[in-house]
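User: Predict the structure for this protein chain, please.
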Amino acid sequence: MRFRIPFSVLRGSLFAALVAAVFASPAFALSAGQVDFSFGDVSAKGSDGNVRALGKGAAINDGDSIVTGNGRVQIRFTDGAYLSLQPNTTFVVEKFAFTGKQDGNEKAIFRLLRGGLRKITGLIGKVNKDSYTMHTPTATLGIRGTAYSANQIGDTLIVTVGEGRVSVTNDNGSLVLGAGQSAIVASPQAGPEMTTEKALAPAVNSGTRQLEAEENIAAVGEQRTTLGDPLPLTTTTTPPVTTAPPPPILVSGPGYAVAYSFFSDPTPSGSHIETNANATLDPGQTLTSFVSSNGSLDLTAGAAQITSSDGLIGWGRWIGPVSGSLPGTEAMYGSNEGLHYVVGIPTATAALPVAGTATYSLVGATPPVTFDGMSGTSLGTLNGAVDVLFTGAASLQMTLNLNIVNAAAGVNYNLANFGGIGVSLDPSQATFYTGVSSGSAIGASGGQIGIKGLFTGASGERLGIAYDILEYDSNKMTTGAAAFRTP
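Assistant: Here is the predicted structure, written as structure tokens:
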């Protein structure tokens, strides 16, 4: 019979002995933590750029980017914290410093780029709450000594607290959650809100006892034992009976299409598309550079202000310097300017429907940049959907039921007023460029919109566009990018 010592009993010298045991190994003391259990495709890219597989006992180092494909991994950190990463997750140990005691120099800065995790915090942050931070593309989490779960899927973040308290904060608001409570942040432009939805791990069928035990870790904090002994696990595994196919992921390679738009005063704005591009994407699926037969763009010297992906299509906005030979190259994009993009492997044109209408709902978008001709640039919001009427093997009509609002620039556009926009697709891959003018869509004197875009997925399940809009009477120019999906 197995017995577990209650957490309340582990005090004083006994607790000190447990913590000391964790640091008894010199190799472990030099690392941020070690892998307690690994299953399936799990790897880490170190700060030196080298990629290594993560098996049981492997060291986790400061600066590691950890990627799970169809696998899972459980990590014990040197401060006693415990972390479980779900399949198709990208997690970064940005900064981890712990000398074995709380001396004011301890620091833990993590980043969940996508996927799901469950976390039991350790000594870091127990006294100084500001020494622990968990960043995501949508919001930042702070802790009050706790167990919690988080899922970052596309632009949406869901956080559920099992024990203690967690703060969820971005530029649009902040919430503090207690045990059993959950919050959702629909996008970086939305504030956190209370929800009954829970942060749940993606379902994966497996015959391992480890994974069965892991599914319960920190669900409500009930299986927590000690900081030094989060959850004893057996080492016996049995082959999985079935394995759910992992969600898709954008990885570096050829065959991509990149539609992008840009604005930087005084550089002219515009939208462009490059096909058959060799694209480089980081572990978080952020586009960092690409090369096509027409030239190249390199974004790595800049800063990604918003980037996301659902595995079929990615989108983002970069500021700072952009180099290369394609249009959009700029010495410096300011914080209210930028280069917007959507990226994906285009659908074969022949695989798209030849008839019928599909509604594509918004997955995510960059903040539209507006230049009013006098006072510089400002950022707005885009909302809505796109109706696509398929009219032939390589043609369609697109109705942009989209609204762009930029109060600082006096913009309130209803793009549906452009009406059905005729689109001709590339004969082999579902990419396009088109434009239209309208007297009623924007401004008293009308305006024009240029669109570059692509369909991705086996049968065009995703739609991405980059756009530039000119309002005639005020000479306002607006640029941005957006990604959409159809059920």
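The radius of gyration is 24 Å.
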